[in-house]
Amino acid sequence: MSTALTHEILVKCNVNLFGHGEQILVFAQSISDNQNIWRHQLSEFGRHFKCLTFDFVGVGKSDIKGSDAQRYIHIEQHLEDFLSILERLKIQQAQFIGHGLGGNIGVIAASQRPELFKNLHLIDMAPKYLNSDDYTGAFHKDEFEQLWRLLAQDYLSWSEILSPSDHKELTNNLKLEALYTSLKALRPDFAQGSLRIKYDLDVRSQLKALKIPLNFYHSLNEPVFGLWLNTYYEELLPAAKIQIINSEGRQPQLTAPDDFNNMLTKNLILNYSL
After folding, report:
1. Could you tell me which of 91, 44, 53 has the C-alpha nearest to residue 265?
2. Which of 16, 41, 64, 208 is found 20 to 30 A from 231 (Cα to Cα)?
3. In which domain, by residue range, is 155 found?
4. Is 134 contained in some domain?
5. What angle do CA 252, 110, 204 make, to 5 degrees?
6. pLDDT at 43 over 70
7. Is 1 a domain residue?
8. Would you say 250 and 220 are in contact if contact means Cβ atoms under 8 Å apart?
9. Residue 2 located in a structural domain
10. Distance separating alpha carbons of residues 260 and 121, to the nearest angstrom
11. What whole-number distance in Å separates Cα of residue 40 and Cα of residue 53?
């Protein structure tokens, strides 16, 4: 059963608390998803833990009244909302489970407020989306520019206006198609912000500086970064635990929930007794 939460920030981000127990798990999905993505985890872990879920502003059942989409064109506004939720609920030493950009926000939050987190569990999370001289295996700048052009064609209905040639160009690039599909889940003005966040994102230095345990979970057939990301994390963070889930796509918590839940359970036991 969820707990009713009425404070302004808790309503704004549709915050819910599920389950029982003194230990708390905080779930943060990618910005283009809603908290329903964790339904298989809530039914499993709610028996032993208190589970916190929420929606980022612009998606799900978040309250966007009075929210300026331009403020969410940078990750800092989402981060501010997230930290406000934890502070309002007096969360300390939580175990954080983050997917995609939600994982990035957890990394930045932990670097700023390490006392809030016991450890981080990061699912298909890339520390950077744009290639650079010291980071290759992600998106090229011209791929982002292609999506920016599509956004600019018709700001209010851009996800419906692609010509057949545009569709063909996207489907010939699996990475770009996957990113485009995630953007379509958002309202156009918030989709623009999500794309901008990915373009600017770089949390490599924050990851390296963290002193808490890091656990990475990566889909075997993840379409954007593939297993290259595992190799990268092994070199960047030799102390981190990296696990591969036999699943398709970028949401193993949905496509392979039993495998993911079993892996997560083992890592939670390392810190807490059930």
Report:
1. 44
2. 41
3. 141-193
4. no
5. 70
6. yes
7. no
8. no
9. no
10. 11
11. 13
Tokens standing for residue 181? 């599909």
- 24-28 vs 241-248, strand pairing mode: unpaired
Task: Please state the φ and ψ torsions of residue 163, each to the nearest 5 degrees.
Answer: -75, 165
**Residue 209 and residue 189 share a domain:** no
Q: Is residue 172 part of a domain?
A: yes
| Residue 123 CB-density burial (10 A; 0-12 exposed, 13-18 middle, 19+ buried) | buried
Q: Does residue 178 surpass a pLDDT of 90? A: no
Looking only at Cα atoms, what is the longest distance across the chain?
55
Q: Which residue, 129, 125, 128, 180, is CA-closest to 150?
A: 180
Radius of gyration of the chain (CA): 18
pTM to 2 decimal places: 0.87
What's the chain's length in residues? 274
Model confidence pLDDT, tens digit, residues 114-148: 999 999 999 999 999 999 988 987 888 888 888 77
Amino acid at 192: Q
Picking from 157, 197, 194, 150, the residue whose alpha carbon sits closest to that of residue 173 is 150
Helix residue ranges per DSSP H, 154-227? 164-171, 174-184, 188-200, 204-209
Please classify residue 95 by burial: count the beta carbons closer than 10 Å to its beta carbon, then call 0-12 exposed, 13-18 middle and 19+ buried.
buried
